[in-house]
């Protein structure tokens, strides 16, 4: 590697530590092998991106890693701890939060209630229908302000644009204070102004210590935001590295364009 090709970590003097790691991960649906013997490491502290053509197994990989579906074989570790086949709530308790490709909010609840409900399972009192405690409400309002939705906290979520709903979902994820955040297509269906806001937020939260793993088709966002990009094709990684190297990799062009 030449001096001009030093990684962001080397330049910043940051140590590289493995975060979410998969070894030989495999998941088939009938005859379709969605994730095919995939071994990949996403580093702690970075903004990692997972890209690849439609149907290359990115969401299935996410789901296997977060306990939403059980892999057929292989291992998933998080910061050295084996989390293979852990239930989603255990994965969350280990410090991994996630959003979904099709944004999950409760349309007839208010914006504030949506963020409070995201924290509900972590508080027995609120789970049993008691009043939300002051501290929880303050924290929810803090995250709403952070994502730029504090001025609409009393609106029903169905009145928000799709991009605002994605920001709302992110505020709910942040209520658990995860150290690693998986975002499934944060820019999908979102207008350019809000894509910019989501990007800025990711950058700020990363600077505050949060690790990101982002599945995204918006290449402008991926290339401007990520420290490290992994490219999937047919269920496994075919290339990885900093954005500039992945962009120029002939294997990536072939996977996307079939050339
Ligand atoms: N529940 C399911 N049942 C059957 N096949 C599935 C299921 N989920 C995914 N697949 C198949 O597995 C393969 C990988 O799908 P997956 O959604 O993981 O890819 P992806 O890279 O996330 O795609 P996209 O970018 O379009 O969201 C595809 O061929 C898909 O049709």
From TrEMBL:
**What are the UniProt keywords, alphabetically?**
ATP-binding, Nucleotide-binding, Transport
Q: Which InterPro entries match?
A: AAA+_ATPase (IPR003593), ABC_AA/LPS_Transport (IPR051120), ABC_transporter-like_ATP-bd (IPR003439), ABC_transporter-like_CS (IPR017871), BCA_ABC_TP_C (IPR032823), P-loop_NTPase (IPR027417)
Q: Which PROSITE patterns match?
A: ABC_TRANSPORTER_1, ABC_TRANSPORTER_2
Please verify whether the record's keywords include Nucleotide-binding: yes
Locate the coiled-coil region(s) and give their ranges: none
CDD domains given for it? ABC_Mj1267_LivG_branched (cd03219)
Can you name this protein?
ABC transporter ATP-binding protein
The organism named in the record is: Motilibacter deserti
């Amino acid at each position: 590697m030449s001096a001009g090709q030093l990684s962001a970590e080397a330049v910043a003097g940051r140590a590289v530590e493995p975060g979410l790691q998969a070894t030989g991960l495999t998941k088939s649906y009938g005859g379709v092998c969605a994730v095919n013997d995939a071994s990949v490491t996403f580093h702690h502290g970075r903004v990692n991106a997972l890209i690849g053509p439609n149907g290359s197994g990115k969401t299935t990989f996410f789901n296997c890693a977060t306990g939403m579906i059980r892999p057929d074989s292989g291992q998933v570790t998080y910061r050295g701890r084996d989390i293979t086949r852990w239930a989603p709530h255990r994965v969350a308790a280990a410090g991994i939060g996630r959003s979904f490709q099709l944004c999950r909010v409760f349309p007839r609840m208010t914006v504030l209630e949506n963020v409070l409900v995201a924290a509900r399972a972590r508080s027995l009192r609120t789970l049993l229908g008691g009043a939300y405690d002051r501290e929880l409400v303050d924290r929810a309002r803090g995250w709403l302000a952070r994502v730029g939705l504090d001025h609409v906290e009393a609106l029903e979520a169905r009145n928000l644009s799709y991009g605002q709903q994605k920001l709302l979902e992110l505020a709910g994820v942040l209520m658990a204070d995860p150290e690693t955040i998986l975002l499934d297509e944060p820019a999908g269906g979102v207008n350019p102004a809000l894509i910019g806001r989501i990007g800025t937020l990711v950058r700020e939260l990363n600077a505050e210590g949060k690790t990101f793993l982002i599945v995204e088709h918006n290449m402008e966002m991926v290339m401007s935001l990520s420290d490290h990009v992994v490219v999937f094709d047919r269920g496994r990684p075919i290339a990885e590295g900093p954005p500039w190297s992945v962009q120029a990799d002939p294997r990536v062009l072939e996977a996307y364009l079939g050339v």
